[in-house]
Design goal:
single chain, alpha+beta, 2-enoyl-CoA Hydratase, Chain A, domain 1, six-stranded mixed β-sheet
Length: 525
């Protein structure tokens, strides 16, 4: 899941200090209130589903594209079915599952998710500090209701005590698991779950659990296998493992409640050092950036600068590894990973489309706040309307060609070639980074295509359902890649595409030198 919150507005320190005591009083009260379950009528539940459908009809740049190019079902055709399911929901959990299922179709590409509770807390503070509504027009006291639904969704899932990784048609354990004297090593293959093959088990999930409410694809479930939606009382799975030594073991795998953290290893956990610099050989340097956290940008820039200064310019190659990096701040992108590598301004163009009704209904003030998140004032030099691509009605759409000029800053001590490692976990602001590298030619992108969802004209929109108070994030502009493909659908394609590769667990020299993609850059590129 992409990082969705980085407080990088220009509010004064004085205002922050004035509001600090208010935050300390109100935040605990709001968090406490998040446990209060709303009581919704059938009519209110219907209202929320209709609100989502109207947002898709009037504002979404993605639903028609998803139907046309991804073959996803029509949100409009499914609307009556989901209204009926919502009205008949027996409780809040079942209603959430219905709404989440419908939303899965509307938000199938780019940014599309229910805001996690952690992010909502930060956004609520931002709303307080900006005098009531913040940049997304949601009053601070409305966030507690969103937190309730986020917590309820978390409670609707269970997960095993180890990672599961999909490799083709097979599933293997991503780390070692030991319980009651039984040790299941990493890379043990899962043969059967509850007596079923993995394929049959996934099909059973889509038929028998609340996944039946979920429109569109459920690849995110099939890839994780045992991270599944289950009702209370679920204890776990009977699993048959094929161990690396060829032996077969059966074990009961207990289930833990909730969605597991994506930051399961040191390689992914930015809390254990966000920017790691490693000399791999005398000629190859390596920089691992785990998240584009705005608050880290200056410290990370200094760390990279010290690392490259120490090399005294001897590196011929520099690997910048942003695999699994879900984004954060566009300021981090330009100030830390682009400007200090430039000798002259890098000028490039992007094309972005927006529904005209979105611009008209939201108003210029709201749109400019969304635009602030993609650093409009710092790097945009020209915005001009351009003809819509074939199949887009000029009466409903406006497309802009945006010229960006990124100026050099104090250069890093490096004159070699840059290689950026990307994968399907690279997205949001890190997508912006990959896209800028692709368009400027500043480096070579190596690995697999990214997730899609950069900030072109503005950031993704925030949608609060009027009756329940659920708070979602949805893509509101459509970005066009240089080859004419839709960015939110295909992401940024690498210059050198490589077969799938498990991520390292640590950022040590020894482990990185065993990584297949790192070795490819060192030995062959």
């Amino acid at each position: 899941m992409f990082l969705v919150y980085a407080m990088h507005t220009s509010r004064s320190l004085q205002k922050r200090q004035q509001m600090k005591h208010v935050v300390l009083i109100v935040l605990p009260l709001a968090v406490l209130a998040s446990s209060c379950a709303p009581q919704l009528t059938a009519e209110q539940r219907r209202l929320d589903v209709e609100y989502l459908a109207r947002w898709a009809r009037d504002y979404s740049p993605m639903v028609a594209v998803n139907e046309r190019y991804r073959g996803l079902p029509s949100y409009e055709a499914l609307r009556p079915q989901y209204i009926d399911l919502a009205e008949k929901a027996g409780d809040n959990k079942e209603f959430l599952q219905v709404v989440f299922g419908y939303f899965n179709l509307i938000g199938a590409s780019g940014h599309g998710y229910l805001y996690p509770e952690e992010n909502l807390k930060g956004l609520m503070v931002d709303s307080l500090l900006t005098g009531g509504k913040g940049w997304m027009d949601i009053a601070w006291h409305q966030f507690h209701r969103g937190m309730y639904w986020s917590g309820l969704l978390e409670d609707s899932f269970v997960h095993p005590p180890f990672q599961v990784m999909q490799r083709g048609d097979e599933y293997v354990t991503g780390n070692r698991w030991q319980m009651w004297g039984l040790m299941i090593p990493k890379d043990s293959r899962i043969l059967r779950v509850n007596g079923m093959t993995c394929k049959a088990y996934v099909q059973n999930l889509t038929d028998e659990t609340w996944l039946r409410y979920v429109a569109g694809d459920v690849d995110w479930i099939s890839k994780q296998l045992l991270v599944i939606p289950e009702a209370k009382g679920f204890r776990g799975w009977n699993v048959e493992f094929l161990l690396p030594d060829g032996s077969i073991h059966q074990a009961f795998v207990p289930a833990g409640r909730g969605i597991p953290s994506p930051r399961t290893t040191e390689f992914l956990d930015y809390g254990k050092g966000n920017c790691i610099c490693v000399e791999l050989t005398d000629k190859v340097g390596y920089v691992r950036v785990k998240a584009l956290v705005h608050a880290f940008r200056k410290a990370d820039q200094k760390r990279i600068r010290r690392f490259l200064d120490k090399s005294q310019g001897r590196y011929e190659k520099l690997i910048i590894d942003v695999r699994g990096n879900g984004g954060g701040s566009t300021f981090y992108v330009y100030e830390t990973l682009i400007q200090p590598f430039l000798r002259e301004p890098a000028v490039y163009k992007q094309t972005t489309g927006i529904r005209k009704k979105f611009l008209a209904d939201k108003g210029s003030a709201y749109v400019e706040r969304l635009r602030g998140g993609v650093s409009t004032w710092a790097w945009e030099t020209k915005i001009e309307e351009t003809s819509p691509p074939e199949g887009f009605d000029a009466n409903e759409w406006v497309f802009y060609k945006i010229t960006r000029s990124v100026k050099p800053s104090q250069r890093y001590c490096f004159d070699g070639r840059i290689y950026i490692l990307t994968d399907r976990g690279t997205g949001s602001s890190t997508e912006t980074y990959a896209d800028a590298i692709k368009r400027t030619g500043l480096g070579t992108i190596v690995g697999q295509r990214t997730a899609g969802g950069l900030g072109g004209y503005f950031m993704a929109d925030t949608v609060r359902l009027p009756a329940s108070g659920m708070i979602f994030r949805l893509e509101a502009d459509l970005d066009i890649n240089p080859d004419g493909s839709f960015q939110e659908l295909v992401g940024t394609r690498p210059d050198v595409e490589l077969p799938p590769c498990d991520l390292p667990e640590k950022t040590t020299k020894e482990e990185l030198l065993k990584d297949a993609w790192v070795r490819k850059v060192i030995d062959e590129l």
